[in-house]
Amino acid sequence: MSLQPFKSIGIGAAFSPNLKANLHEAARLSLFFKSKLFLIHVGEVSDDKVKMLKIFLKPFEKDNLNYEVVYKSGNPVDVILSTTEEKNIDLLILGAVQRERFLKYYVGSIARKITRKAKCSVLLLIKPSVERVACEHIVVNGLKDPKTEQTIKAAFYVAKQLEANKITIVEEIKQEQVSVKVDDDKSLRKANIIKERIRLRENSRIKDIIEHIPEKYTKNIVTKLQPIFGKQGYSIGHYAQISRADLLVMNAPRKMTFWDRLFPHDIEHILTELPTDVLILQ
Amino acid sequence: MSPRKNKIKDFLSALPKNIFSGFVVSLIALPLGLGLAMASEAPPIAGIIAAVVGGIVVSIFGGSHVTIAGPGNGLVGVLLVAITTLGIESAYAAIICSGLLILLLGFFRMGKLADFFPSSAIQGMLAAIGLIILGKQFHIMFAHKIKREATLDYLYEIPFTINDALHYQNKGLIFAALAGVISLAIMMFYAKIRNKYLQLIPAPMWIVILSIGFSYYFEFIVHEVNPIAKEYMISGIPSIQTIIADMHLPDFSSVGSFPFWSSVLAITLIASIESLLSIKAVDKLDPEKRRSNVNRDLKALGLATMGSGFLGGLNVVTVIARSSVNVNNGASNRSSNFFHATFLVLFIVLFSTQLTRIPLPALMAILVYTGYKLASPNAIKKIFSIGKEQLIIFFVTLIITLKIGLITGIVAGVITTLLIHIVINKTVSLFVRNVMKPNVLMYQEEGQDNYYVSVKHFCSFLNYYKLKDKLDAVPEDKDVIVDFSLCSFVDHTVMENMYNFQELFKKRDGHFDVIGLDMHDTDSKHPFALRRLLPVPNIIKNNLTRRQTSMESLAEDYDLNYKSEKQKSIGFLNHFLFFNTKTVNHIYNQLSYKNNVINLFDIEFSEGEFIAKEVIRSTMLHIKLDCPIPEFTLDREGFLEKVYSFAGFKDIPIQNHSDFSNRFYLLGDNEEAITAFFDDDLVHFFESNPYYHIESNGESLLIFGKERLASIKEIKALFDFGKRLKDVVEH
């Protein structure tokens, strides 16, 4: 397994009030992951713009930040997607929008389109900040899915690089798996026995995955397993929110169809209600 | 012994108790069944048929344990409309169709149907039904039959009827009205008189017995005709042969018409809501703490309703008042429901001619009281204390139900609630955006046994079923924490249900905590429901009563702690057998001694539900013990206990103390430990001291004298008794 998944990081650089914070976050991550940073600007080159980006990234020069600015005009979604492919970007950073008055974040329409179509991993930031906010607790999904093993491994890698000290692996279990419907005391007892059995099975599956990760990455990190019976994709976001996680790591969804958007599931739930920073791994 | 055999043995040993409670319930079911049927303008026997079919079918196929099925009071309103618009034969067809729908509801697991209605709207609907019953029967109670188009007209005319009754010239009418008024008085004051011999027979049966006795008195002793006017006597109680011979087939000819189906829908809706609410309430009273299978019960009720409709009976629903009487008389399984039906059949077979001696006004008084209980001012006061907006919902539902009809009324209630929620929150998007989201997360943390539930966005009657689904999957003896901190709006319906869950968990050794609402309190957005849940201790009342000041000085003289305020933390009482089928409201006027080791307090608790509900205040003594002792109940031996022991409650004899065994009635499961515990010292202590009811729950003792508040002198005696008993027990 390649344990340096993010060789190059891309970020859309639109000249908004958030730009400085976004750039700082992206630059810091590039240093943590020892990767190259691509600033993708949708629009023409101009001296002002070049100067401004330079000023913003000045503090990182002493750490030898390796970065490149790409200027390209056109439709923002297409530009960013095509550039990620051209430059072989592994991780794309996107900012979220805050719903006014509420402390609720969601992914804007452009970012949402990019998230759905991107072939690389995507990191959605809810509160980019100039100063670093330490990442302490990472929540990662433990779905029964071929991608999960890779996702968990990457989560440990990220935890190591960001010096997070706690990882919770959430196994979302569909309610349908509990074959008994609770009606009375007898069926309740039965349902609870089945749940306990599923819980143990899921935990042993995840433990097996963790055992295959090099010890270098797992030591010094508190690992917790948390089985949850609930709606896939939604419960994990809810859990990340109440456990005050700093980063939520998830599998990229399988191919989306029109129906998936109409009846939101998995990742779509997260996009309308970002509980925290979300890393979607391809 | 195999577990299966054990079950049969348990069932057989519990049988006498269940036969006994089935008998007591049938005593209420008989007059209520007749009255409810007549109030819906069906033949009186239709109510009894419903109770008999319901009792038999539901006890065999049902999924609840101690409920009683029969004709319901909520249904009077809709059945009345159905029978008057469709005619009785088509109404039977409508009842059969509604039975089919209820059966389907059970199959589609719609037991959660009742959770979709805001509780204030349901309250309003029930109050409207109460007024419909009261308005119509009030006139008959005063021997003044009238016929009006609108329900409200009946209510307007109540004062005129009273005025007319005061000026009756006809002797027959005067006697009829008197029978009504006296019966109403019996219903009202019955609960106030705590005499165990009187309480052995339920109030409605007293009315029946007294009025039949009255009729016999005139026939055999005075040798006169019964002075009550003939048209105000129950007519048309057929003998069992005629019931079977006269069975008319339901008429399905109007099946295609609109009024038919609107009646079917209304009957189905009310029948299922009434049953579901009753099952929920009775589950809380079940001494064995079982959980009812709601969907299975719905199926059974549907089947029973279909059968009842074919035989010429009314809808079968689960009824709260009769069920609570059932529980209070020691029922432990469904067989009591079966026996209630059996006794009803016996009554009809043996006494059907006697029943025609009951005056109509007396029977209607029972219904007037039922109606009053449904729409009592207390219910309105309670709703007002929750919040003004709840009162709006309540009255909108009430008035529209009275003016137009039940379905329109409840729909209006739901819409009003929704609008009020939108106005209070000043947002529509909160509801529109989040109503479909699975907003409830429940998980058990690794290695811990407790459940954590977090609710997001908003939680109201619209999406309460999601929360309920999760909470229902938790055994009641576990610990649950419900966190509303991510929830920006919680409505009254949810808060009320949370309170109910709390009560249920408390009774079954679990813990149910609601957190995260502290922030909401300051938020002014939704103050109403909150106050309900986190009751602020009542503002200290300055004006103590005379009894309270004497208690205060008593506390000073004897170095006790005195607290006059109401206290709701009464968890220490939950394990006493005595409170198994009773709901403790609060304790007050507490005198405590030595760090609460000995505690004397006034207590308010209630027994039964609805018309069988009785609020009782008493003074009790609670002693915490240092060492565990066996669980037992001790009381003086009396006639009632003889009756009970006949019904299967066993008295434990103590060897060599026949005097004690004769005078006291000792109950408990662990006979060996109890006989060992009652040594010479203890027996001698009990023999030489006044009688009290004494109960042990293993670690503490509960002692009380009469089921009323004690005087200061009695308090002193009780305290002294408790102190000495503690010494004897702990030696």
From TrEMBL, chain A:
This is Universal stress protein. It comes from Flavivirga rizhaonensis. It comes from the Bacteria. Residues 61-124 form the UspA domain. Belongs to the universal stress protein A family.
TrEMBL record, chain B:
GO terms for cellular component: membrane. One of its GO terms (biological process) is transmembrane transport. InterPro entries: SLC26A/SulP_dom, SLC26A/SulP_fam. Pfam families: Sulfate_transp. The chain crosses the membrane at residues 20-38, 45-68, 74-104, 116-135, 172-190, 197-218, 258-279, 300-321, 341-370, 391-424. It is found in: Membrane. Keywords: Membrane, Transmembrane, Transmembrane helix. The keyword Nucleotide-binding does not apply. It is a multi-pass membrane protein. It comes from the Bacteria. Residues 17-397 form the SLC26A/SulP transporter domain. This is SulP family inorganic anion transporter.
